[in-house]
Amino acid sequence: xxxxxxxxxxxxxxxxxxxxxxxxxxxxxxxxxxxxxxxxxxxxxxxxxxxxxxxxxxxxxxxxxxxxxxxxxxxxxxxxxxxxxxxxxxxxxxxxxxxxxxxxxxxxxxxxxxxxxxxxxxxxxxxxxxxxxxxxxxxxxxxxxx
Length: 146
Fold this sequence. Notes:
This protein is an alpha+beta fold. It folds into two domains: 1-57 and 131-146, no CATH class; 69-125, no CATH class. 40% of the residues lie in helices and 12% in strands. It is built from six helices and three strands. The chain has a three-stranded antiparallel sheet. Helix 1 crosses helix 2 (27-35), helix 1 (19-25) packs across helix 6 and helix 2 crosses helix 3. The two termini are 18 Å apart.
């Protein structure tokens, strides 16, 4: 499915923001749109397209191979840090104790307080520095990024 541009929300909590921007701000909101049947069919299709595009973005291991996991280290207090993205061979020697899929779905696998760390890691990994505009975010998901 080819998209023509960002989907700007017209009302509600995120009025004036695009779904693409929300993938970096509140991905759970966008994900919920993919599974709720009471929304506009085009909106649901666009949200589904975003999740597929996010899952297709490649992260790379320091060894150069495509990463399979985002590796986290969680200490005894429950706090965690993102160690990096690693291929299957390197992940087990990275020193972490939690392995998440190396794509946008990783943000749905951690508690809400940890999502910002994962999102910040993804932004850095994909070279998305500074403010993420609707145009910048759309270009990323449409394929003009890794």
